[in-house]
């Protein structure tokens, strides 16, 4: 019986070769997209899975409920108190530096070692890397110890058994306490060396408002995380507020409203890569991942729809076969199983083809996402094969049940063609397919518009030809280093101007604190800078004046602010000049002398945040944060100027250190990469959807028009023109397309409007994508269907009318 079913199946595949190829092609494309996105998702979810303690390690995030914003920082006393007063918290580890680099000297060589981390002494309790040399006990206790990875140990000593050896950093000796081997599995935490911030943590032990650390907590098994968050509020946040609210004359609750944070969030360590609201090590984008996954599933669904449509359209060809088989005793369940088998063979063949195509496309996909995914995870095969079975059931069961329900007597009499049930089913499914296609066209156009709008938007500054050089060497007085070299670097041929700014577009680095005026407080970024920095970056002055080095007041307590700062306080420009505020980093009042136009330094997706600009010498501690020098280059010989700058830097400024530099406009452009990739993927998926849909439409229209060839022959005999016949044959499909687009418009409007809500700077919802979707689909439908319709007008009249 199975052998006969397979023979019949292959006879039908050959007879309907066009629809067979279209089904194979559509399902292969759909399953390939599904597997690639599934592997991408699986890879993002695999981070930190290697950690044996992952079930009980949670990343800490603060939550400001009023503004619904999240932070990834904590202060030392808050972490220490949590262990003391909350029973569920067993331990904590703090980070206050990652991606660090130092010039290290051993008795063998001097090496600039990168990718280090500053972490508290519990680090190896949280991350039990394989120990190669030394001991983890007290490995990070003290300010003169260092732990090395096997790679760093080989770089410095040429071997890994180096516990007890000495490493010099900035003329300070560190003893190697442990050598560890980093995990080969995916992890965001892979430091090549670790130094404990012992002295800094000691100084910050009473600084409750110094949120300079990232934190993981080790919790007891079975901890109720929601209850823990409430305990954190009661025992940590309120405790801090009660200490500090007295000086401000407000209640603890009011203090938290003013200065925050008002809540906390705990995310399991193996979920931070994709699901954390904020993370010290960077957050993923789960929303985009779900969009991509949903779109890949939709392509598979479209392929299944093609299958259903073509099978039901071919029903008339198999009506007599079914009638005969029923007449000789075949049961309905046997017929359903037979048609399901025919569907499974096509689906399984598509599955094998998609595995080969996925393997072929994987290197390009890895390059696109900067990953190293390989097809060695059984989950990929399991879920993709489960999708094949689902497609088999969905695309096989509907036509199988439909065909198996034919009445033997009616089909043998030839009355099946008069049934309208098949027509309604096909038209309904075709409408659904065109609704999805319309959504992709509308969505693709809106995504393109939004990305183009962000890339073309005036950012409020000019970073063109501005080269930023990061200080790699840790100087005791970095501001003096900057002041010493800026005049010398200005003399280099091709350098037009020199300056320094803390808040640099695209750098991702910033610090902020509360700014208080009477009973109101806001958070604002710090923009410590040299006097000429804003003019250097071509930022526009809205009102007031620039800072002047010749005015003593401008070096003490005068500042500039941006428009967002003024708006956040609810002031007018004139009120801003009259009001004084107190920043969280100082006790004296500060006076605003100028307001600059907003310019975007973080992300084109986010709104410009309040920033206060002041000279780096105004606050004593800010001098120690001077970390770069910026040069504006003349346009005539940029390559030559770069060579001269690099030579001077490596010979006179930081010999032995890498030349860590970038152009600001190019660095900020990297923040667009994510959205450009979304745009590219949406365009690719859009093309795939349209291809699958139009191929299905062509095959379906071909079958349906073939069923009407006798009608065409009769009408042509009666004198109908080719144009009239073509319009008559395509009219039904054009109406279906129009209805589908009209249904898709409100759905697309809602979904794309939700997507645009994530952008602070967004386009107004345009009308033309909706209109263009209708016009484009009507043109494509007419073009695809009219090909077969035109062929139908050339029908051989004798062939169809000889028995009439």
Automatic annotation (TrEMBL):
The keyword Aminoacyl-tRNA synthetase does not apply. It is found in: Cell membrane. It holds the Pfam family FtsX. Residues 294-405, 685-796 form the ABC3 transporter permease C-terminal domain. One of its GO terms (cellular component) is plasma membrane. Keywords: Cell membrane, Membrane, Transmembrane, Transmembrane helix. GO terms for molecular function: transmembrane transporter activity. Residues 20-231 form the MacB-like periplasmic core domain. Its main location: membrane. It comes from the Bacteria. InterPro entries: ABC3_permease_C, MacB_PCD, Macrolide_Exporter_MacB. The chain crosses the membrane at residues 21-41, 289-310, 335-360, 380-403, 424-447, 681-705, 733-752, 767-790. It is a multi-pass membrane protein. This is ABC transporter permease.
């Amino acid at each position: 019986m199975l052998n006969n079913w397979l023979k019949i199946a292959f006879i039908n595949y050959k007879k309907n070769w066009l629809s067979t190829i279209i089904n194979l092609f559509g399902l292969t494309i759909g399953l390939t997209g599904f597997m690639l996105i599934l592997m991408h998702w699986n890879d993002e979810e695999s981070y930190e899975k290697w950690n044996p303690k992952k079930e009980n390690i949670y990343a800490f995030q603060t939550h400001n409920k009023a503004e619904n914003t999240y932070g990834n920082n904590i202060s030392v006393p808050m972490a220490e108190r949590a262990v003391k007063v909350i029973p569920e918290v067993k331990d904590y580890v703090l980070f206050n530096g990652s991606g660090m680099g130092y010039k290290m000297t051993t008795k063998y060589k001097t090496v600039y070692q990168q990718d280090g981390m500053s972490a508290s002494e519990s680090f190896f309790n949280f991350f039990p890397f394989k120990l190669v040399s030394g001991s983890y006990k007290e490995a990070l206790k003290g300010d003169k110890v260092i732990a090395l990875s096997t790679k760093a140990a080989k770089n410095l000593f040429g071997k890994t058994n180096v516990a007890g050896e000495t490493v010099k950093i900035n003329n300070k000796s560190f003893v190697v306490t442990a050598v560890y081997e980093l995990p080969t599995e995916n992890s965001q935490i892979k430091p090549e060396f670790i130094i404990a911030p012992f002295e800094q943590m000691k100084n910050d032990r009473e600084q409750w408002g110094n949120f300079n650390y990232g934190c993981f907590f080790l919790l007891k098994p079975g901890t109720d995380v929601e209850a823990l968050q409430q305990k954190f509020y009661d025992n940590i946040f309120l405790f801090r507020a009660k200490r500090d609210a007295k000086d401000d004359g407000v209640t603890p609750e009011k203090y938290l409203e003013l200065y925050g944070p008002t809540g906390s969030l705990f995310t399991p360590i193996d979920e931070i890569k994709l699901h954390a609201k904020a993370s010290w090590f960077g957050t993923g984008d789960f929303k985009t991942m779900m969009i991509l996954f949903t779109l890949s599933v939709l392509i598979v669904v479209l392929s299944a729809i093609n299958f259903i449509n073509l099978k039901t359209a071919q029903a008339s060809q198999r009506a007599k076969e079914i009638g005969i088989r029923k007449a000789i005793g075949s049961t309905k369940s046997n017929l359903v199983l037979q048609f399901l088998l025919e569907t499974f063979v096509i689906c399984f063949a598509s599955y094998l083809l998609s595995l080969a195509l996925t393997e072929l496309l994987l290197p390009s996909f890895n390059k696109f996402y900067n990953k190293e995914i390989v097809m060695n995870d059984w989950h990929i095969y399991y879920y993709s094969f489960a999708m094949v079975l689902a497609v088999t059931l969905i695309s096989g069961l509907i036509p199988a049940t439909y065909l198996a329900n034919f009445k033997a007597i009616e089909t043998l009499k030839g009355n099946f063609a008069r049934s309208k049930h098949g027509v309604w089913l096909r038209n309904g499914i075709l409408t659904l397919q065109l609704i999805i296609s319309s959504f992709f066209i509308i969505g693709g156009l809106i995504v393109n518009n939004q990305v183009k709008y962000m890339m073309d938007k005036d950012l409020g500054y000019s970073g063109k030809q501005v080269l930023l050089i990061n200080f790699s060497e840790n100087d005791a007085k970095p501001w003096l280093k900057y002041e010493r070299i800026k005049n010398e670097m200005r003399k280099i041929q091709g350098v037009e101007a020199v300056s320094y700014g803390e808040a640099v577009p695209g750098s991702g680095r910033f610090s902020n604190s509360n700014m208080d005026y009477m009973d109101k407080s806001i958070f604002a970024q710090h923009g410590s800078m040299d006097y000429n920095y804003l003019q250097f970056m071509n930022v526009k002055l809205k009102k007031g004046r620039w800072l002047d080095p010749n005015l003593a007041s401008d070096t003490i307590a005068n500042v500039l602010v941006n428009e967002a700062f003024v708006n956040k306080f609810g002031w007018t420009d004139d009120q801003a000049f009259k009001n004084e505020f107190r920043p969280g980093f100082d006790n004296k009042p500060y006076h605003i002398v100028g307001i600059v136009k907003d310019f975007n330094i973080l992300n084109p997706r986010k709104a410009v945040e309040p920033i206060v600009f002041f000279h780096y010498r105004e606050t004593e501690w800010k001098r120690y944060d001077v970390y770069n020098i910026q040069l504006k280059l003349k346009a005539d010989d940029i390559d030559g100027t770069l060579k001269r700058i690099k030579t001077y830097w490596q010979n006179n400024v930081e010999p032995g250190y890498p030349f860590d530099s970038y152009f600001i406009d190019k660095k900020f452009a990297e923040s667009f990469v994510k959205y450009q990739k979304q745009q590219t993927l949406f365009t690719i998926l859009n093309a795939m959807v349209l291809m699958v849909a139009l191929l299905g439409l062509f095959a379906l229209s071909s079958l349906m028009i073939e069923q009407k060839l006798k009608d065409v022959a009769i009408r042509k005999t009666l004198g109908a023109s080719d144009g009239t016949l073509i319009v008559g044959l395509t009219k039904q499909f054009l109406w279906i397309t129009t209805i589908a687009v009209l249904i898709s418009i409100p759905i697309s409007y809602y979904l794309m409007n939700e997507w645009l809500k994530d952008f602070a700077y967004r386009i107004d919802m345009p009308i033309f994508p909706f209109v263009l979707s209708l016009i484009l689909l009507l043109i494509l439908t007419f073009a695809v269907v009219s090909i077969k319709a035109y062929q139908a007008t050339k029908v051989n009249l004798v062939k169809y009318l000889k028995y009439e």
